[in-house]
Amino acid sequence: MGYGGWVRRGEKPAWYTGFFPPRDMDFLAGLNPQQREAAEHFEGPLLILAGAGSGKTRVITHRICHLIQARGVAGGAILAVTFTNKAAGEMRDRVTRLLGSDSSLEAPLISTFHSFCVRLLRRDGDALTPLRPGFTRNFQIYDDDDQTAVLKRVYKQLGITEEFLKPRAALSIISRGKNHAQTPQDFYEQAASPQAERLAKVFEEYENGLREANALDFDDLLLEGVRLLGHDAATREWYSRRYRFLMVDEYQDTNRTQYELMRLLASKHSNVVVVGDEDQSIYGWRGADIRNILDFEKDFPGARVIRLEQNYRSTKTILDAAGAVVANNIARKGKWLWTEAGAGTPIGVFEADDGEQEALFIAETIDKLLRAEPASHVAVLYRTNFQSRQIEEALRRYGRKYKVVGGFSFYQRAEVKDALAYVKLLVNGRDNVALLRILNVPARGVGKTSVEQLEKLARERHISLWEAIAQGCDEHKYGARAEAALGAFRRVIERLREGLPSQAPHETLRRIVDESGYGAMLRADPSPEAESKLGNLQELMAAAADAAARGESMEEFLDHAALVSDADQVDETAPVSLLTMHNAKGLEFPVVFIAGVEEGLFPHSRSRDSEEQLEEERRLCYVAMTRARQRLYVSHARYRRRYGGSPPEPCTPSRFLKEIPTHLMEILSARRADPYQVELSDEQQMVREVARRNTYTGKTYNSLDHISQFFAERGIQINPPRAAAPARAAETSYPGGARVSGPVPQPRVEPAAGPAKAANSPVKHGESAAQSASFAVHPAAGPKPAAAVKRGGTIRAGATVSHPKYGQGLVLRKEGEGEDAKLTVSFSGHGLKKLVARYASLKVLD
DNA sequence: CGCTATTCATTTTTT
DNA sequence: ATGAATAGCG
C-alpha cells in the first residue's frame, strides 16, 4: 500500500508549505451547500452526519484538496483513516486526480487504522519494548488462523478440549476483553466460576503465546499503537504535530481503541473531522462503539455538526422503504434522507417455496436484466456466507458469470499460507505458529510424538520450538528417526535463511518452494488441485517480485498479506457480485437483491434475544437496501434447510419485510397468477430438470483467474504462470471476474457402482500409463518403505486375488499403476476394501 | 508415521 | 453439503 507522506523522525515537521496555487482551483464547485460547508471547514472538530449516498467520500476528498490548495496545508500534515484498504486506495486516487499532475504537492496519508498502526510500530516501536518484553519492530502479525492455532496450542498445553469453549468463541471473548483494556488478571479477578477462571488462564497463555513469538494480533496492532503513543511522550508529540489534520471515515464503526488513538493524535490541535452515520453502524459485535459517534459533541466541546441528508444514489421508493425500516430503531439521532430522483420501480418481493427456488428466481431475474442491459451491475446480498452456494449454483445453471466476495481470499489459501509460514520462520525464528504449520509440510516424518517432545523441551527451557529443535538435536534428546527428520528440517531452514538478506523476496519464495520439497510434493500429486496450488505459488512469487519492484521489503510484503481484507477485493464493475451485507458497506449497485429475508436468518437467530442486536440487524438491513440505485429485490423462502442434509424447516418472513410500506412493494411470488411469473415458473421447471440430469458440482472456490484479478486490482502485474494448469473445463475467464464459471457445465461422468464404471472413468487405464510416466520425473517426497515389494504390477481389474486376512477377493477397480495403484477389492464376507498395491500383500490367483 | 474412510459438527457478520 | 477431527490399516 502506498507509503507516501511518511516522514522520518527528525525531518522538519512543516505543516504549511507556503505553497499557494497559481490559480484558484475551486474544489467547492458542484457541491451542495452542506457539502460545501463541510469541505470548507478548516480547524476545530467537526462531525459530518452523512446519510447513505449523500456524497461523503466526495466531501472528504474535496476537503483534502481544499486544505492543500486553498489553505496551503502540506499534504503530509493530513491523515485520513478509512475502514478498508480499498476505500483508502480509492480516496487516494480521487485526491490525486483532483490535484492533477502537480507532483510537487505532497500526498496526504490515507490508510486504515490498522495499517497506520503497523507503520507506527515498525518505525517507532522500540519504545514499546519495556512495556511488552520481547517486542521488537520485527514483530509478526497474526491473523485469524494464526490466532486459532495459538489457542489450540494453549488448549493442548492446558489439557482443555474444545468442549470447554470453541476456540473461535474464546477468541471473541478475549478480543472483547482486550478492546476494553482488560488483562488476564482482570479476568481472574472477575472470575465467578471455575470456567471463567479457566478462560482467564487461556487468555493469559494466549498472550504469552503471542509474546513468545513476537507476534501481534489485530487487536494488538491498535492497542500497542495506543500504548506507544500514550507512554512515549516524544513519539506522541511528533505524530500529533505532524498530523495536524485528521479525518476519520465510517466513524460509527470505530471501537474504543481506535477512538483513543484518534484522541491521542488529536491531542495537540483537535482538528478532527469525523464522518459517519449512526444508522449504518453494523460492527457492534466486533467492538465498534456507537457511542463514539453519538457522543462526539460531548467529547469535543464546540464541535460543529453538519448533516448531509440529500441522497444522490437511490430512487425515492428505495429511500423511503429503507427509511421506514430504520425508523423502527430507537437509538438514533434521527434523520430523513431526501432525493430529487423519481419514484422509480417498486421493490420486488419474492416468496419462494424453498432456497433453491429463491436462488433460481434470483438467477433468472438477473439473466433477464442483463440480457436487456448487458452493461449493468447486479449485487446479491445475504446475511451469511453459506447462502452464496445455492445462488452460485443457480447462476451457473443460467450460465451467468459472477464474482463472490469473501470466503477464501488469496492469502488465506493453504499453500500460500504455507509458503508465507516458511518466510515468517526465516525472518523470525520465534514464530512458533509458522513453525508448526510447516514442520511436516511436506511430510518429513515428524509426527505427533515428535512435536510433543519438542513442545516439552521448549516449555522446560523457555525457548522457542525452533531452538528446541536445534538444542534437542545437538544433545540427542530425540529418537534417531525423529532426530534425522528434525535435522533435515533444520538444515533446510538454515540454508534458506542464509540467503535471506541478499536475495529478493520472490527469490526467497522460489527457493522455499524448490528446496523445502513443497514444490516437489505438489508436482508429485496428480490432482488438479495440486496443479492449481502450484499456480497460486507462482502468483505469489509474481506478487512478491512486483512488491520488490516497488521497493517493498519482505516484511512489508508480509504486512500487506496480513492486512488485506475481503472487502478489498470487491469489484464493482463485475456484472454480478455476491457478497455479505457487511461487505457491501460503502458500495452501490444499480440493481440489488437481498436474499433470505427470513426470521432467524435475517435478523439472525443469534441476535434475537437482545433489542440492541436487533437494532443492529435493522441497521444492516438499512445498509443493504440503500446500496441499490435503481432496483431492489427482496426474497425469502417458506421452507429452508438449515444444513445440507435433512428436513427443510418452515420460515416466516422477516420482520423487516413487514416494516416496508406495502405501497412501495410489488409482490412477485410465483403463486400469484401473474402471466410473467407463470412464464418464469415454466422455465424454472425446465432448468431444474436439466440440472437434475447433469448433477454438476463445480468448484465453488475462487479460481486461478480470480487470483490474477486479485492482484490486478491492486495494480500488481502478474505474469501468467508458466506451469499454469489448463483452465478447468467448466471455468472460463472474463476480465474482472473471480470464481467464474462458464455457461456450459461440463457434464461429468457419473460414477456408478461396480466394475463397469471403472472402465468409463476418465483417469483410467489408457491414459494412466502416460500420466504416471510424466509424474515419475518428480519423485514423491516421502521416503518409501524399504519393504515395498513389487506385487501390484500384474494385478488388473477383474483379477481374483488373495489377501492374508480377508482371503479371496475380486478386484473391481484399479486407479494408478504399479505399486501406487489403488485397488478396490470385494472380499466375500468383508465387503469392499480399498487397498494400495504396495502395502497390501496380495497374491494374484488367476 | 502417513494415508484413508469414517464420523462429527457446522453457519453470523471481519479489520 | 462440506470440511475438520479421528480411528484403523499398511
Topology:
Elements: H1 33-40, E1 46-50, H2 56-69, E2 78-82, H3 85-99, E3 109-112, H4 113-124, E4 140-142, H5 144-158, H6 167-179, H7 184-190, H8 194-212, E5 215-217, H9 218-231, H10 233-242, E6 245-248, H11 256-265, E7 272-276, H12 291-294, H13 296-299, E8 304-308, H14 316-326, E9 347-354, H15 355-372, E10 378-382, H16 388-397, E11 403-404, H17 414-427, H18 432-438, H19 448-461, H20 465-474, H21 480-499, H22 505-515, H23 518-523, H24 528-549, H25 554-563, E12 576-580, E13 589-594, H26 611-625, E14 628-640, E15 649-650, H27 655-658, E16 665-667, H28 675-693, H29 704-712, H30 755-760, H31 765-775, E17 800-803, E18 807-815, E19 822-827, E20 831-836, E21 843-844
This protein binds a DNA duplex (15 and 10 nucleotides) through residues 83-85, 112-115, 144, 162, 218-219, 221-222, 253, 282-283, 285-286, 383-387, 389, 406, 440, 443, 445-450, 481, 563, 565-567, 580-583, 601, 604-607, 616, 620, 642-645, 697, 782, 785, 834-836, 838-841.
Kindly summarize this structure in a few lines.
The chain has 846 residues and is of the alpha/beta class. Mean pLDDT is 80; it is low at 1-24, 672-683 and 685-793. It binds a DNA duplex (15 and 10 nucleotides) through α4, α9, α19 and β20.
Structure in words:
- This protein has 31 helices and 21 strands.
- With 846 residues, the protein is of the alpha/beta class.
- The strands form four sheets. Strands 9, 10, 11, 12, 13, 14, 15 and 16 form an eight-stranded mixed sheet that branches. The protein has a six-stranded parallel sheet with strand order 3-2-6-7-1-8.
- Helix 17 (414-427) crosses helix 21 (480-499) and helix 17 crosses helix 22.
- Mean pLDDT is 80; it is low at 1-24, 672-683 and 685-793.
- The protein binds a DNA duplex (15 and 10 nucleotides) through residues 83-85, 112-115, 144, 162, 218-219, 221-222, 253, 282-283, 285-286, 383-387, 389, 406, 440, 443, 445-450, 481, 563, 565-567, 580-583, 601, 604-607, 616, 620, 642-645, 697, 782, 785, 834-836, 838-841.
